[in-house]
Amino acid sequence: MAADSVLTLVCVAGVAQQMTSNTPQPKPLPMPQDRMADSYDIYSQLQPGNQIEWGKVPRSFWLMEDTTKAEPPNIPCATGGMMNPHKAIQAPEVRKAEFAEILADFDAHCHNRYLLDASKFTVTMPIRLMDEEARKRYVSHVSGYKPPPNNIMHAPPTPDEFKEAAGMHSFTAVYFNDAHTLAMTEIGMYCGGLCGNWRWVVLERKDGHWQVLPWVRMSMMS
Hints:
This protein is α/β, with parallel strands linked by helices. It has one domain. Helix content is 22%, strand content 23%. The protein is built from five helices and eleven strands; from the N terminus they run E-H-E-H-E-H-H-E-E-H-E-E-E-E-E-E. The chain has helices at 13-18, 33-45, 85-88, 96-109, 132-142, and strands at 7-10, 29-30, 62-65, 114-115, 127-130, 168-171, 175-176, 182-190, 196-206, 209-213, 218-221. Strands 1, 6, 7, 8, 9, 10 and 11 form a seven-stranded mixed beta sheet that branches. Strands 2-4 form a two-stranded parallel ribbon. The protein has a two-stranded parallel ribbon with strand order 3-5. A hairpin with a 2-residue loop joins strand 9 (196-206) and strand 10.
């Protein structure tokens, strides 16, 4: 694979629905204090923008799952999952030691789910957090959508309950190196049927701001 290329995994609708976490998960935890400020800075910076699928689509509010995504308890952190960062991200040779610290953080916490707090985001548009029941209602409305044959990329209509949103967004926890100067998180957007995108983002803190690094080699879409 070329150094600047990204492998995109295309999944069918059933796999896309699995990415919205129907698998039983452990009870979510409060976000640890030592992760909170940097995590919300990163989440807020990624909205809106080119990193998030549909990041610049017109909307009146962000529709987001209220708990970070995590690997199911029976999936090994270091080797499991279709989008495992050990495979999906490639750091340059001179940065591999730093990135290894992030992977160690991921391996230690990949099963942890953290509750999100809408008031901690610093974005101009309101954020509506969805609990598990709301998430299920959204998925049940859009999961069976079939686009017209002449426009297979056509997005499903948004359910009335969530009108003026644009897709259901999600984050994993943010994983850091020891110095909190490098970070990674997986961002996701699901809009039903053959409509969704999930990818890792790697960031570096420079001059007080988080900048995206071109280290990601794999993404997933449906």
